[in-house]
Write a structure and sequence with these properties.
It is built from one helix and twelve strands. With 146 residues, the chain is mostly beta strands.
Amino acid sequence: MELRAVFLAEYFDVDHAGKFFVGGGFSQVTADEFPAALGADSKLIVVIDADHGEPDPGLTIEIRARGVETPLASNDFPISGIDAPAPKKGSAATHAIRVSLNQVVLPSQGHYYFDVHLGGQLKQSLRLVASEQERSEGEENEQSTE
């Protein structure tokens, strides 16, 4: 089993030939204030190649802030019941796993990492930068007079 790709996006699909269709890819988010939710359409996409009949080693995804050992969120996702085009004889199938991030809340601005573990081993760490929305002078003046 091999990790092929990991990315953050709002839309993802894979056709019968294994071609990816990605929309709304992102590596940074802005919010008016923190804590802030990532949003209903935010997804972590994990693409894996696996031979037919290969045992499921388990997929674990941890979301953590830079410099913080304890993850904000951690989930185990079995590699089954996912999009998998029929493999050609003698080739691996491409599995595309969509992980919804609509329940993820970032406590403050900064750098966050999506750690993808396969079979208990860290395979890739994907960075997300969260920052506060810049305000125009008019917006700042309105808030200071309230």
